[in-house]
Amino acid sequence: MKQVIFTADDFGLCTEVNAAVEKGHSEGVLSAASLMVAAPAAADALERARRLPRLKVGLHLTLVDGRPLLPAHEIPSLVDGTGLFSTNLVSAGIKWFFSPTARRDLKKEIRAQFEAFRATGLKLDHVNAHNHMHLHPTVLTIMLDLLREFGWQSAGVRVPREPPQPGLALWLWLMRRRLKNAGLRINDVLVGLRDTGHLTEDRVLSALDKLQDGVSEFYFHPATTATAMLEANAPGYDRLGELHALTSRPVALRLQALGLMPKGFSDLPLAPLRT
User: Angle, to 10 degrees, between the axis of helix 239-246 and the axis of helix 15-26?
Assistant: First the structure.
């Protein structure tokens, strides 16, 4: 059985992204969005989400390449002199793994982002992380602990898997096993990983023609305008092209022909919890 989820990341980054999420959902096939609770336009994103009751909203943990939710003095090991997270993913990951202080600060920041999402009153559809940093074992462990603590064991978690990935195959298998053992909803494939920022109409149509059985999550980074800030944030992303794909009539017709309706993680069957 084939199922699809169409998700927009970086919800809350700026109003141009938020407007694209609203347009992609109201006028297109976008079914879910991942909210950055500490981003500059998070309040605007929340306002839009509340008037889009069918949009499934999840938490997009931001732990690198962005701003923290907590004040810099509470998590000094995670931020630079400007109070922002590191943009060097490798060095950040190494620090999280080997530094007890960094792990404590990381847990404080992740907890704060969980609490901020709970305070929105929205139902949590899923959790993932900016730049897929929930692949990191420390982040994943903290996430799983907090999902249990907050009573969100039925949420979804993105698995960043788009074969072939020979260098990550074992790691992704272990990640999937941990998530399944926790009873969480997961996707089987992440469509667009190799084409991040360039999941345009032709690529979506091609991927739909090649769908395998299971849950395929298509993930997008749309915006209504290509601003200088967005270009600096992710150089070269075709955000307008991705928005066009989400509102494309050919994409909607292809989904209809395949008998597919994009959904959220919370619409998927719940895996049995293993003890």
Answer: 20
Q: Is residue 275 part of a domain?
A: no
Q: How many CB atoms lie within 10 A of CB 116?
A: 15
Name the helix (H) or strand (E) containing 196: none
Q: Which of 41, 49, 37 is nearest to 16 (CA)?
A: 41
Domain holding 171, by residue range, is 2-267
Is the whole model's pTM more than 0.90, yes or no?
yes
Q: How confident is the model at residue 272 (pLDDT cuts 50, 70, 90)?
A: low
Q: Is 245 among the domain residues?
A: yes
Which H or E element spans position 94?
A: helix 89-98
Q: Which of 45, 118, 108, 120 is nearest to 79 (CA)?
A: 108
Domain contains 16 = yes
Cis peptide before 164 (omega within 30 of 0): yes
Output the CA angle 247-6-116, nearest 5 degrees.
115
pLDDT tens per residue across span 159-183:
999 988 888 899 999 999 999 999 9
Q: How many CB atoms lie within 10 A of CB 206?
A: 11
Residue 270 CA to residue 83 CA, distance in Å, equals: 39
Other beta carbons less than 10 A from residue 191's beta carbon: 24
In a domain? residue 136: yes
pLDDT digits (tens, 9 = 90+) for 181-223: 999 999 999 999 999 999 999 999 999 999 999 999 999 999 9
CATH classification at residue 104: 3.20.20.370
Q: What's the number of domains the chain is made of?
A: 1
User: How far is 147 from 137, CA to CA, in rounded Å?
Assistant: 15
